[in-house]
Specification:
It comes from Dongia mobilis. GO terms for molecular function: ABC-type ferric iron transporter activity; ATP binding; ATP hydrolysis activity. InterPro entries: AAA+_ATPase, ABC_transporter-like_ATP-bd, ABC_transpr_FbpC, ABC_transpr_MalK/UgpC-like, Mo/tungstate-bd_C_term_dom, NA-bd_OB-fold, OB_MalK-like, P-loop_NTPase. This is Glycerol transport system ATP-binding protein. The chain folds into 2 domains: 4-236, Rossmann fold (3-Layer(aba) Sandwich), CATH 3.40.50; 243-355, Nucleic acid-binding proteins (OB fold (Dihydrolipoamide Acetyltransferase, E2P)). It contains 8 helices and 22 strands. It has helices spanning 48-56, 98-108, 113-126, 142-154, 173-190, 201-207, 225-230, 235-240, and strands at residues 4-12, 23-32, 37-41, 63-68, 71-72, 83-86, 161-165, 194-198, 210-215, 218-223, 247-250, 252-254, 257-260, 263-264, 281-285, 290-292, 298-307, 311-318, 321-328, 337-342, 347-351, 354-355. It is of the alpha+beta class. The strands form 5 sheets. It has a 6-stranded mixed β-sheet, sandwiched between helices. Helix content is 24%, strand content 33%. Adenosine-5'-triphosphate is lined by residues 13, 24, 42, 44-50, 199.
Length: 357
């Protein structure tokens, strides 16, 4: 296993990149600790596969370096990097038994048969495949096959990192959560460095201790699931993570305070804002931290109310702006006119999309 360092990495598919949009991957530096569980999360086209291919060696970076521990592997072949990859579609040998599929990478490397047997049985048990080791792999369901793909990475002791590229895409929805929890449990048991690539926030947040959120070829935040929820470093993270996402409202510095469409917002101290800083100012507050207030709150008109099980999502409008409020079960939802309050510790200010510290 290895610590992975991404050092001022940039990548372009254009031969002579000039404009910012020529870069599929904008400059980034990251440090992935040995044995950590990471997710790479972002919408389609944000550069996840490009970064994965740079780490696995299928692509050579235009600029910057990738290090496994102290070794610069930027120009090293994929085989030499010792990476196990689990793709969207399981890669297995249908005609072989489950046992032989798991043993294959070890036989290839000339490992002693007794050691192969020990490793295959151990991994088979971990993946709940112990009872089907002698069965043909072709008879397994998609999730069983995907477990073999994963098992083939886990049996090897020389693997630097296991990378998952949208591994649950072909898994039945009702089995997804089973495999998702299994992956998390496996990471706890084996403590290998794992990188999980997905556009699905639930998958990323359940699997990873730390999530790298990407947008437009750029890393917008690296944080624990709680950090991403409580302190989104960019309005994109606020929108993309959470269901529903963070409310983002245009605000201005007026008469020594923060105001939204002329209404003073006390949840943010104006003293935090550099008046000379310029740029577009926005307030971000998650629906979980908006509540109905008495007099003095932000006046709104209550619109649609959606029942979402343990809470309701209330759509409130102030002038043309929609503000979502999450109301826990059992709590009353007003009708008609109401007033909203924002919880100060969870109300953030953004300048040109980025959190003002
Ligand atoms: N081989 C290529 N040649 C030229 N441009 C590419 C190539 N591969 C990717 N790109 C571009 O690089 C950008 C990042 O794409 P990438 O596939 O890395 O994103 P992604 O987040 O993995 O998206 P998806 O989830 O859809 O695969 C996109 O604008 C894409 O069009």
């Amino acid at each position: 296993m290895a610590r992975i360092t991404i050092d001022r990495l940039r990548h372009s598919y254009v031969s002579q990149p000039g404009k910012p949009e020529d870069w599929a991957l904008k400059e980034m530096s990251l440090e992935w600790e040995d044995g950590g569980a990471y997710a790479l999360l972002g919408p389609s086209g944000c550069g996840k596969t490009t970064l994965l291919n740079l780490i696995s060696g299928l692509l050579r970076p235009t600029e910057g370096r990738i290090l496994f521990d102290e070794r610069d592997v930027s120009s090293v072949s994929p085989e030499e990097r010792n990476i196990a990859q689990v793709f969207q579609f399981p890669v297995i040998y249908d005609t072989m038994t489950v046992y032989d599929n798991l043993a294959f990478p070890l036989r290839n490397r000339g490992v002693a048969p007794s050691e192969i047997d020990r490793r295959v049985r151990e991994i088979g048990e971990m993946l709940d495949l112990g009872g089907s080791l002698t069965n043909r792999a072709s008879g397994l369901t998609a999730d069983g096959k995907q477990k073999i793909s994963l098992g083939r990475g886990l049996v090897r002791s020389d693997v630097n990192v296991i990378m998952f590229d949208e591994p649950l895409t072909v898994i039945d929805p009702h089995l997804k959560w089973v495999l998702r929890s299994k992956l998390k449990e496996l990471h706890h048991r084996v403590r290998r460095t794992m990188i999980y690539v997905t556009h699905d926030q639930t998958e990323a947040l359940t699997f990873a201790d730390k999530v790298v959120v990407m947008n437009n070829g750029e890393v917008v935040q690296v944080g624990t699931p709680i950090e991403l929820f409580e302190r989104p470093a960019h309005t994109f993270v606020g929108h993309f993570i959470g269901s529903p996402g963070m409310n983002v409202l245009p605000v201005a510095l007026e008469n020594g305070g923060i105001s939204f469409m002329g209404s003073r917002i006390d949840a943010i101290e104006a003293a935090r804002v550099d008046a000379a800083g310029g740029g577009r100012l926005e307030l971000g507050v998650r629906p979980e931290f908006v509540s109905f207030a008495g007099t003095g709150g932000l006046p709104v008109e209550i619109g649609k109310v959606t029942d979402a099980g343990r809470f309701r999502i209330v759509e409130a409008r102030h002038q043309d702006h929609l503000i979502r409020v999450l109301v826990p079960e059992g709590q009353e939802v007003p009708t008609g006119s109401a007033a909203l309050g924002f919880e100060p510790t969870h109300t953030h200010l953004y300048r040109d999309g980025w959190l003002v510290a």
